[in-house]
Amino acid sequence: MNGSNEMTLSFSARSENEAFARIAVAAFVSQLDPTLEELNDLKTAVSEAVTNAIIHGYENDPTCEVTIEARIEGDSVSLTVSDSGRGIEDLELARQPLYTSKPELERSGMGFTIMENFMDRFEVSSRIDGGTRVAMLKRIESKKALYN
């Protein structure tokens, strides 16, 4: 092993798969021996990104697919959560705390803010009718990686 590892996971855009995505990413990242706090940060960020893809990108259409790509490089894990759904019309507005395009769902509008605060790096890109891609990076401080 050359110090890196990667995985790709695709699943139906169903809300019940959000928990599966959290667990799968947590299991993959466990090889870095993260602290409970680091693991919870990662799981929360994955939950937010996956939920956004399902609810906003695909309007809860279970025939669509969400993809997570994860890569471990040294003491860091990079995650990309992507969909090929509706896209985001105004990315700057969507990144504002408390903004939500679906107030009727009583969601907080804090998804991007949470991801940005829990990760060391956060980027989002989107195209109308071309989907959204959230790229995040987290350094695992405990750094007892098996692949160093």
UniProtKB/TrEMBL annotation:
Record's SMART domains? HATPase_c
Do you know which Pfam families this protein is assigned to?
HATPase_c_2
- A biological-process GO annotation: sporulation resulting in formation of a cellular spore
| Keywords (A to Z) from UniProt | ATP-binding, Kinase, Nucleotide-binding, Serine/threonine-protein kinase, Sporulation, Transferase
A Gene Ontology MF term for this entry?
Answer: protein serine/threonine kinase activity
Reaction(s) catalysed (UniProt annotation): L-seryl-[protein] + ATP = O-phospho-L-seryl-[protein] + ADP + H(+); L-threonyl-[protein] + ATP = O-phospho-L-threonyl-[protein] + ADP + H(+)
Q: Give the first-level EC class, as a single word.
A: transferase
All copies of the Histidine kinase/HSP90-like ATPase domain together span 37-142
* EC number(s) given by UniProt: 2.7.11.1
Note the InterPro entries from the entry.
Anti-sigma-factor_SerPK, Anti-sigma_F, HATPase_C_sf, HATPase_dom
Q: What does this protein do?
A: Binds to sigma F and blocks its ability to form an RNA polymerase holoenzyme (E-sigma F). Phosphorylates SpoIIAA on a serine residue. This phosphorylation may enable SpoIIAA to act as an anti-anti-sigma factor that counteracts SpoIIAB and thus releases sigma F from inhibition.
Into which family does the record put it? Answer: Belongs to the anti-sigma-factor family.
Specify the protein name: Anti-sigma F factor
| Organism this protein belongs to | Paenibacillus endophyticus
